[in-house]
Specification:
heterodimer, A: alpha+beta, 4-stranded antiparallel beta sheet, 22 helices, B: Serine Threonine Protein Phosphatase 5, Tetratricopeptide repeat, Serine Threonine Protein Phosphatase 5, Tetratricopeptide repeat, 72% helix, transmembrane (chain A), heme transmembrane transporter activity (chain A), cytochrome c-type biogenesis (chain A)
Chain lengths: 663, 377
């Protein structure tokens, strides 16, 4: 029943208000009953949001066009899966998904936060409640998905055909789990600022949450990139589009947060910086939501003509970002700073990582916002595209990637760079070999290609070196080494996997950009085309009818060495009549880690068809690397020990470091 | 009503989530520093467990233990000890306000935003409604669904085409007229309608294609007023105003006194004498210009449409007769349409399908009687 969902949403808003105010008041006055209100209210609020979301999804599944939102974004002929995913394939529904995840995380804190100090728990839930209340109010006043129409139109306007894809089922939920996951880190930070102290349990909670959020965000971005790659039919995997940047900025800041949270958890240092990063990361998530949802990206002027939503989000940004930063400015000096450490140490390496990542974030932020600011002030529309980011973001990333393998090998508190460099000799040799092989045998013309491949191998071998060194490779007997390897903490595997995945992604990007080939041609039935050693024969165009579209499917046979067909690739041009939109379904054949990508163009009057062909070497590694990074994060999450990073005194025995004088 | 009950239960549940903790027992809050100590103790005990299971080297365990000990020493014991929760007046006020806020805010907001009386209307429910209760859009949609399944039903296209024209869905009207002509052959009304649809789809310009259709209509019925009117309009648009005027004058001479076209012709004549009709000026026939009628269907059209649908149901039952619901719907439809003979016929056929002594036959007879119909004369 639709109205039940609507009422549940309103009720959830009322509860979120209570959750924002009562526990906060209780924590201020030391009233434990009021502090206890936060938990049950968060759980019931989540249950009501689930009810509300489920109602909307049911309305979508049953094509209830008396709900205006369903009418605008659905059609009775769509397959059921796209009817359901259409729930969040639009502004209103996606905002409901946003608060659903927000209340879910709030409920998790309420349920599993029993071991938190009562005031911290109350304050965290209050901040979560405040975020929730604002978003509920935003949904109810400017983007209500439950507005009804009577009489109901008989047929809907269809979901945007580009969104009628499995990618919609996976990408937005993952991305939002990432965005919103950082809200927990944010709430913990603001709660710490409100209290004026950082508890020991604060540090234990923030790292896993940052990990969870980062894991989902990584998956969301990788999935979004692959979706754009195969659905848009241009064969590109990243466009430096503002919408993409909007998700990439929290990822960069979140990566920095993840690393500084490690320092904080293990060494009790960098507390204030971590707190600031947590605030900034979630602020960037909010900013991303604002950029994508307010319509400011399509045009500043479109934003100005219908400003209700935009102005609401803008005030929300001001409230949360401005408010939390002001609180930080007021309270940060009262927080106790953490321990001291030597610049050459694991902590130092992580700070270096943070410096690079935050600078990179700022670069992307400028590249994304500058055109908007310019358009708002002068009215000129410029686009800051790939050249800007290649010139700024690229040079920032390369040195960071170069130092990545050093970090995990450095000891806490004070490390020995020389000893680490010696251990990395094998990885360096492998990277050098990769450079030489690339330059001599594959592509001697481009220094960038050779060095890029070398960098990727450096990262991959560096991650393996980390595992080898920590399991005692070469210094102990193989069976002892194996048992040590198995006994290594999961977080060590997590680190190695994540850095390994980073190397794979780098290899995929370099391979695709440097060794990819492309061909545009007009082809007739029976003709063959050859690209990078792959031969294709055009078998013809076959019309067919889908549930809510008609298509011309072009069939191509992939020919083996003897000229016989080994497999088939099909690419189609689809027409969705309701919206009068055509889409191109690209044909992709994965061969090893590489892909042959085929996109059907227009048909000429003489029966020939325009076809774009790409050979994309190692392209799957780009997203495969993302999956490996996710696996690394998951592995690290499974390390449930209460992690304490003690400065190692074993180095004393080797004589590489003068005896550390411990406080 | 059901909704109000559900809403009340939900409100109650939500209010209890606020009320119960407020009414519950009060734990004396521990000093924040004590909590940190607890965390460090947990860490120490877990470290011991790990060391005992050999998950961590003894030397590393020793170092970690020293690190935890250092943190315990650093513990800020001056953490603000929470005050005991005395039942202050402010606290009571806040608690009361919080409990009241839930029903007040939710019902207040909902009464502004919601439509509590509007039931869900999933597609399946809307399609199952009686055609007589349906809106024009629904009727059109059903006819479209019927024609999508039976694209060679010429009569269906013939009924739908003028409806499209009136709904200003001109390109659909063009396709529907073409289908009707293809399947059921030429007729003056179809050809003239096709011409009107083509002209309106082109924003009112009487193109060569539209002229062909009007010419075909005049060949079948030389006195067809719609075709004559639009052809003259086409002449006027080409700048041949005197010829157009002559054609309209001739129409006035032949049209019967009560023809609805007289007004349109007189208006066109008045405008062509006032000023030269600019090329591309929208052609205005009496029904196309009748904007009010554009969205609503005339009673005749509505009737015709329902009749096609009932005929479709009849046909379906001839092919799949064992459908008790369908027979009752058919009988009721014929009664609603005032066709008692056909209703009786349908009733007889339905009873014959299931056998005169069957459960269904008794149900049919009782149902027909409730509509004031008897099985036999």
């Amino acid at each position: 029943m639709v109205e039940t969902g609507h009422f549940a949403l309103v009720l959830a808003f009322a509860l979120a208000l209570v959750q924002a105010l009562v526990p906060l008041f209780g924590a201020r006055t030391g009233n434990s009953r009021m502090m206890a209100v936060g938990g049950p209210v968060a759980v019931i609020g989540f249950a009501l949001t689930v009810l509300s979301f489920a109602t909307l999804a049911t309305a979508y599944a049953s094509s209830d066009f008396s709900v205006a939102n369903v009418w605008e974004n659905s059609h009775s002929l769509q397959p059921l899966i796209y009817k359901i995913t259409g729930t969040w394939g639009n502004h209103e529904g996606s905002m409901l998904l946003w608060v659903l995840i927000l209340t879910f995380f709030g409920a998790l804190v309420a349920v599993f936060g029993g071991n938190l100090p009562a005031t911290l728990r109350a304050n965290v839930l209050a901040v979560q409640g405040a975020i929730g209340a604002t978003f509920f109010l935003f949904i109810l006043t400017t983007s209500n998905p439950f507005i009804r129409m009577n009489p109901a139109p008989i047929e809907g306007r269809d979901l945007n055909p580009i969104l009628q894809d499995l990618g919609l089922a996976i990408h937005p939920p993952l991305l939002y789990l990432g965005y919103v996951g950082f809200s927990i880190c944010f709430s913990f930070s603001v709660a710490a600022l409100i209290e004026g102290r950082i508890d020991a349990s604060w540090a234990r909670w923030v790292r896993p949450w940052a990990l969870v959020a980062w894991m989902f965000l990584t998956g969301g971005i990788a999935m979004g990139s692959y979706w754009a790659y195969y659905e848009l039919g241009w064969g590109g995997f990243w466009f430096w589009d503002p919408v993409e940047n909007a998700s990439f900025m929290p990822w960069l800041a979140g990566t920095a947060l993840l690393h500084s949270a490690i320092v904080m958890e293990k060494r009790s240092a960098l507390k204030i910086w971590t707190l600031l990063l947590a605030i900034l990361t979630f602020s960037l998530s909010l900013l991303g939501t604002f950029l994508v949802r307010s319509g400011v990206l399509t045009s500043v002027h479109a934003f100005a003509t219908d400003p209700t939503r935009g102005v609401f989000i803008l005030s929300m940004l001001t409230l949360f970002i401005g408010g939390s930063l002001a609180l930080f400015a007021l309270r940060a000096s009262r927080l106790t700073a953490g321990g001291l450490f030597h610049p050459i140490s694991r902590e130092g390496a992580l700070i270096l990582n943070n410096l690079f990542l935050t600078t990179a974030t700022a670069t992307v932020l400028i590249g994304t916002l500058y055109p908007l600011a310019l358009e708002a002030i002068t009215g000129d529309k410029i686009s800051v595209g790939a050249p800007f980011f290649n010139l700024t973001f690229g040079p920032l990333m390369v040195p960071l990637l170069v130092v990545v393998p050093f970090g995990p090998l450095l000891a806490w508190k004070r490390g020995d760079l020389l000893a680490v460099a010696q251990r990395l000799m094998a990885a360096f040799a492998a990277a050098l070999l990769a450079v030489l092989v690339t330059a001599l045998f594959i592509d001697g013309a481009s220094a960038f290609a050779a060095l890029g491949v070398g960098l990727a191998f450096w990262l991959i071998c560096g991650a393996l070196t980390d595992l080898a060194v920590k399991s005692g490779f070469g210094t102990v007997a193989p069976d002892v080494m194996l048992s040590r390897l198995v006994g290594l903490p999961r977080s060590v595997f997590g680190t190695a996997l994540a850095h390994f995945g980073l190397g794979l992604t780098t290899l995929g990007i370099v391979g695709t950009l440097c060794f990819g080939t492309e061909k545009i041609l007009s082809i007739r039935v029976g003709e063959t085309v050859e690209l990078s050693g792959q031969t294709l024969r055009f078998e013809g165009l076959y019309p067919s009818q889908g549930p809510n579209y008609s298509e011309d499917r072009g069939r191509f046979a992939l020919l083996g060495a003897d000229g016989s067909s080994t497999s088939e690739i099909t690419s189609a041009k689809r027409l969705y009549p309701v919206r009068q939109m055509t889409t191109t379904e690209s044909g992709i054949k994965t061969i090893g880690f590489s892909q042959l990508y085929l996109s059907l163009g227009d048909q000429a009057t003489d029966g020939s068809v325009v076809v774009r062909l790409w050979w994309k070497p190692l392209v799957t590694l780009i997203w495969g690397g993302g999956l490996v990074m996710m696996a690394g994060a998951a592995m690290s999450l499974m390390d449930r020990r209460l992690r304490v990073g003690a400065p190692s005194r074993r180095r004393k025995a080797t004589g590489a470091v003068p005896a550390a004088s411990l406080p | 009503m059901l909704f109000c009950v559900i809403a009340a239960i939900l409100t109650l549940g939500a209010s209890l989530a606020v009320l119960l903790p407020l009414a519950g027992g009060s734990k004396s809050p521990s000093a924040a520093g004590a909590h940190d100590l607890e965390v460090y103790r947990d860490q120490l005990s877990e470290l011991d467990r790990d060391a005992a299971r050999g998950l961590i080297q003894p030397a590393e365990a020793e170092e970690a233990r020293a690190e935890i000990a250092r943190r315990i020493l650093h513990l800020d014991n001056a953490g603000p000890a929470a005050r005991a929760a005395g039942p202050s007046t402010t606290a009571r006020l806040v608690a009361t306000a919080a409990v009241l806020a839930v029903p007040l805010i939710s019902w207040g907001f909902y009464s502004e935003l919601g439509s509590p009386d509007l039931p869900s209307q999933p597609l399946s429910a809307r399609l199952a409604k009686n055609p007589a209760d349906s809106s024009v859009d629904e009727l059109v949609a059903r006819a479209e669904a019927h024609l999508a399944a039976n694209p060679s039903d010429g009569k269906g296209w013939d009924v739908l085409a003028p409806v499209y024209l009136r709904m200003q869905r001109f390109s659909d009207a063009v396709a529907a007229y073409r289908n009707a002509i293809r399947l059921d052959g030429d007729s003056p009304a179809r050809q003239a309608g096709l011409g009107e649809a083509i002209a309106n789809a082109a924003g009112g310009t009487v193109s060569a294609e539209a002229q062909d259709a009007f010419d075909a209509a005049l060949k079948l019925d030389p006195a067809n007023p719609k075709a004559s009117f639009y052809l003259a309009m086409g002449l006027a648009q080409e700048g041949r105003v005197p010829e157009a005027t002559a054609a309209w004058q001739k129409m006035l001479g032949t049209l019967p006194q009560d023809s609805p076209w007289r007004d349109a012709v007189e208006q066109a004549l008045a405008e062509s004498t006032k000023r030269n009709v600019a090329a591309g000026e929208p052609a205005k026939g009496p029904d196309a210009g009748d904007v009010d009628a554009a969205s609503s269907m005339s009673p005749q059209d509505r009737q015709a449409m329902i009749e096609t649908m009932v005929a479709g149901l009849d046909e379906k039952l001839r092919q799949n007769p064992r459908n008790a619901e369908g027979w009752m719907q058919l009988v009721r439809s014929y009664v609603v349409l005032g066709k008692a003979d056909q209703a009786r016929d349908a009733l007889g056929r339905g009873i014959a399908v299931f056998g005169p002594d069957s459960e269904e036959a008794r149900k049919f007879t009782a149902f027909a009687a409730s509509l004031g119909l008897t099985a036999t004369e």
